[in-house]
Amino acid sequence: MKITQRFNRVVKPLKPVDCSTKDPKPSILKIKPNLKPKSKTKPRTMKQKALTQPGLHSEESKPTFLLEKAPILGLEFYQIDALDLAPRLLGKYLRRDDVVLQITEVEAYRSNDSACHGRVGITPRTAPIFGAGGHAYVYLCYGLHTMLNVVADKEGIGSAVLIRSCAPVTGLETIKQRRGLDTEKPILLTGPGKVGQALGISKEWSSHALFAPGGLELLDGPEMKVEEMVVGPRVGIDYALPEDVEALWRFAVAGSPWISAPKNTLRPPSSSTKLLDITI
């Protein structure tokens, strides 16, 4: 079991977009006893719900003015190993139409990984994963659930990052309608099939360029530090080799309620087990 410096490199991503907001202190009109106040107008105070996740927005914080300034991530952002790309995607934004989601949980799938679809080679289904990094790879799970993956690395490698969970930022009503679920609880977006449904995408979105304006875009967002992450083994890959089943290639935002089950397999990277038990 050994650790490489690969993760140390990826936690220093592109210059982050400042997505933090602070409530201004309310101005309060003080009235002296037995004296008529100078103004009959009561001061207005602004109340805002506190963010429930470090570095992540809730629907109530309405950060649309910041999102307008958030650039679409360029092609070069994706031209790295899937295991490097996965933690860098945490905190980034997916945008389609009026819906904006912030990525809270991902899984890496590498070309030499027995759990990766690329292991079978190029087929009509897997061809998009062998494209250049920065494109979408979308497939149906059990013929029902639309799974969105972000292709990583250079063309021909065959690796990607699965988007497992997101938090809603804008377009909540559209998300509810697409999901057929009238709730604002995390169940709305905690699971890869739910993310695909909320974005309203299908298999036809495979090979779509996420770095191109229009359609489905991936925007820059706040960087996640190591201490803001939890890691664990990937979900639903019992068919893979034991070393791949046990690999800690699932990344999530620590303390976020917008994480799929199981959560008890996730732990801080500072635990007794090293963050990335990888042999490159």
UniProtKB/TrEMBL annotation:
GO terms for biological process: base-excision repair. Keywords: DNA damage, DNA repair, Hydrolase. InterPro entries: Formyl_transferase-like_C_sf, MPG, MPG_sf. Its EC number is 3.2.2.21. It catalyses: Hydrolysis of alkylated DNA, releasing 3-methyladenine, 3-methylguanine, 7-methylguanine and 7-methyladenine. It holds the Pfam family Pur_DNA_glyco. Residues 33-47 have a biased composition (Basic residues). GO terms for molecular function: alkylbase DNA N-glycosylase activity; DNA binding. Residues 20-57 are annotated as: Disordered. Belongs to the DNA glycosylase MPG family. Hydrolysis of the deoxyribose N-glycosidic bond to excise 3-methyladenine, and 7-methylguanine from the damaged DNA polymer formed by alkylation lesions. HAMAP family: 3MGH (MF_00527). This is DNA-3-methyladenine glycosylase II. It comes from Lactuca virosa.
